[in-house]
């Protein structure tokens, strides 16, 4: 009589698979480094490709026991930072640590400075191999680029650190997983190539999909007789997306809305989300993301780059999306959750538009403009413009301000570039009218371009002084305007550039 195996143990989605674990090519090296006194390990790679499993498989073969030979924690755990600090502090002073090995998962969630500090501490622990037979050591697990900050100030840690960078799993390895699962359950998948494609080089996703296929066919344990499993992958995908949408659509909506959602304005975070949908990888550099976007959309994405992390983690709004997506301004994006990656791969843009309450036409209309706001002004009021620009950028309004664009404008024909920008690139223009505006060559040029026939309702005058209140040729006095004469006068009297904050209410009114 055959010993029956349970589906949840064969295609296992939580923990180490007992029947379908496929050892990676570097497995022997990892095991050797784990048993090497004083040798720390750093294992990097996207979620779902076996980073944590390779460590626990080695522990299993070495007969290591939790809380005797090692302690495991994730940086998502409450109090994780204190446990790490306590272990390293004790080890550095030669005090008992309780266990010889500390396994730190999701290491990338620690601040960059702390990771660099840990690099310095690990070097000292390695030196203790000369003092003790089994010095304490650490195994660090995280997304790609985790080791950049770790080694930044500890270049001499390198020889004491076994570093392994895991990448997309090959179809050969996924195929082996499928074969071992088939043998364990006495089944055959009819369309293996489809399962290989759907798994997208991810062990965890392969386990999950195979589990769903078997469950949909009523296979919950080893079959008495071999059975061929036929399945409708589109049907399974649709069922998965229905299930996943309940879990992940709120995450997608929070990210897509960014810091302040404006249905009619630029939507840089929505564009980032849709670009991530187009790139079927767990790790996406910022340059790669820009590559898939139209040239017209790139300024908005670049403008919000410094604030993307604030959308992913916003304690004031009780938002923490790091379990699903991580961002580093230098390294780019990492999709932490393989099911979230699958959700994005199969997300229809029209579905997210619907969830956000915007029509396709409004999205296309917003995409006509690279910037929400452009500024036209004489240099004498620059400090006023700088305050307005800073306030707008805090709200993720995409602005064209010459000082922000100096690197872009170098070596270009300014007349041609500015003609395009002031004729078509901005949805609105804040025109700061003062006594100097009509005297300057560039402001006259900008005004002439902005007031050409073909566009309307796009100029918002900002009246800075009495001369500005008289308007300018081509900008009628009847246009709704923002009047800052009192504020500007008081600011000049004080001689301070920090006393012009009240423009924000007028700006919010013109940029809903």
**Class of secondary structure makeup:** alpha/beta
Shape: globular
Rounded mean pLDDT is 83
| Secondary-structure arrangement, i.e. CATH architecture of the largest domain | 3-Layer(aba) Sandwich
The biggest sheet, with number of strands, parallel, antiparallel or mixed sense and barrel status, is:
5 strands, parallel
Separate helix tally: 24
Strand order of the largest sheet: 2-3-4-1-5
**DSSP strand (E) fraction?**
5-15%
Query: What is the helical fraction, as a range of percent?
Result: 40-55%
Please name the fourth-level CATH homologous superfamily of the largest domain. Toll/interleukin-1 receptor homology (TIR) domain
- Report how far apart the termini are: 72 Å
CATH class of the largest domain: Alpha Beta
> In CATH terms, what is the fold-level topology of the largest domain?
Rossmann fold
Low-confidence stretches: 496-512
Extended strand count: 17
* Domain unit count: 4
Cα gyration radius (Å): 29 Å
Protein name: AAA+ ATPase domain-containing protein
InterPro entries: AAA+_ATPase (IPR003593), P-loop_NTPase (IPR027417), Toll_tir_struct_dom_sf (IPR035897)
Organism: Ramlibacter montanisoli
How would you portray this structure in words?
There is one protein chain. The chain has 512 residues and is an alpha/beta fold. It has four domains: 7-11 and 170-231, no CATH class; 27-165, P-loop containing nucleotide triphosphate hydrolases (Rossmann fold); 237-360, no CATH class; 369-510, 3-Layer(aba) Sandwich (Rossmann fold), CATH 3.40.50.10140. Helix content is 46%, strand content 13%. The strands form five sheets. A five-stranded parallel β-sheet has the order 2-3-4-1-5, with helices on both faces. Strands 14-13-15-16-17 form a five-stranded parallel β-sheet, with helices on both faces. Strand 9 and strand 10 (319-320) form a beta hairpin. Helix 2 (27-34) packs across helix 3, helix 7 packs across helix 8 (192-199) and helix 8 packs across helix 9 (203-216). The longest helix has 25 residues, at 233-257. The protein is globular. The termini are far apart.
């Amino acid at each position: 009589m055959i010993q029956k195996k349970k589906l949840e143990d064969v295609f296992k989605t939580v923990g180490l698979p007992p029947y379908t674990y496929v050892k990676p090519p570097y497995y022997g090296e990892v095991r050797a480094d784990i048993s090497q006194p004083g040798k720390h390990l750093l294992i990097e790679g996207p979620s779902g490709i076996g980073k944590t499993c390779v460590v626990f498989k080695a522990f299993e073969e070495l007969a290591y026991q939790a809380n005797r030979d090692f302690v495991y924690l994730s940086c998502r755990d409450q109090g994780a930072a204190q446990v790490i600090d306590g272990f390293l502090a004790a080890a550095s002073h030669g005090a008992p640590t309780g266990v010889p090995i500390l396994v730190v998962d999701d290491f990338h969630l620690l601040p960059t400075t702390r990771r660099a500090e840990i690099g310095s501490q690990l070097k000292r622990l390695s030196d203790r191999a000369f003092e003790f037979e089994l010095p304490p050591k650490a195994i660090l697990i995280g997304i790609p680029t985790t080791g950049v900050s770790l080694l930044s100030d500890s270049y001499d840690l390198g020889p004491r650190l076994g570093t392994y960078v895991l990448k997309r799993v090959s179809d050969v390895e996924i195929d082996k997983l499928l074969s071992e699962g088939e043998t364990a359950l006495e089944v055959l998948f009819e369309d293996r190539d489809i399962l290989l494609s759907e798994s997208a080089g991810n062990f965890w996703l392969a386990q999950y999909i195979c589990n769903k296929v078997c469950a949909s066919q009523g296979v919950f344990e080893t079959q008495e007789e071999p059975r061929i499993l036929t399945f409708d992958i589109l049907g399974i995908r649709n069922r998965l997306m229905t299930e996943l949408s309940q879990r992940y659509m709120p995450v997608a909506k929070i990210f897509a809305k960014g810091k302040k959602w404006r249905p009619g304005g630029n939507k840089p975070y929505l564009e980032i989300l849709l670009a991530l949908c187009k790139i079927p990888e767990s790790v996406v550099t910022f340059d790669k993301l820009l590559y898939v976007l139209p040239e017209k959309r790139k300024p908005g994405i670049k403008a919000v780059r410094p604030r993307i992390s604030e959308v992913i983690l916003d304690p004031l709004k009780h938002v923490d999306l790091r379990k699903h997506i991580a961002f580093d301004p230098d390294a780019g994006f990492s999709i932490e959750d393989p099911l979230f990656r699958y959700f994005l791969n199969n997300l229809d843009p029209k579905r997210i538009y619907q969830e956000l309450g915007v029509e396709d036409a409004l999205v296309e209309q917003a995409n006509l403009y690279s910037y929400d706001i452009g500024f036209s002004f004489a240099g004498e009021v620059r400090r006023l413009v700088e305050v307005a620009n800073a306030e707008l950028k805090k709200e993720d309004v995409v602005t064209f301000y010459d000082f922000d664009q100096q690197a872009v404008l170098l070596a270009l024909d300014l007349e041609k570039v500015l003609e395009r920008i002031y004729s078509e690139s901005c949805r609105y223009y804040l025109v700061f009218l003062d006594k100097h505006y009509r005297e300057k060559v560039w402001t006259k040029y900008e005004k002439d371009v902005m007031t050409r026939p073909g566009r309307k309702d796009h100029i918002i005058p900002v009246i800075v002084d009495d001369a500005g209140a008289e308007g300018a040729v081509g900008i009628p006095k009847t246009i709704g305007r923002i009047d800052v004469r009192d504020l500007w006068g008081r600011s000049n009297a004080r001689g301070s550039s920090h006393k012009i904050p009240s423009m924000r209410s007028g700006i919010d009114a013109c940029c809903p």
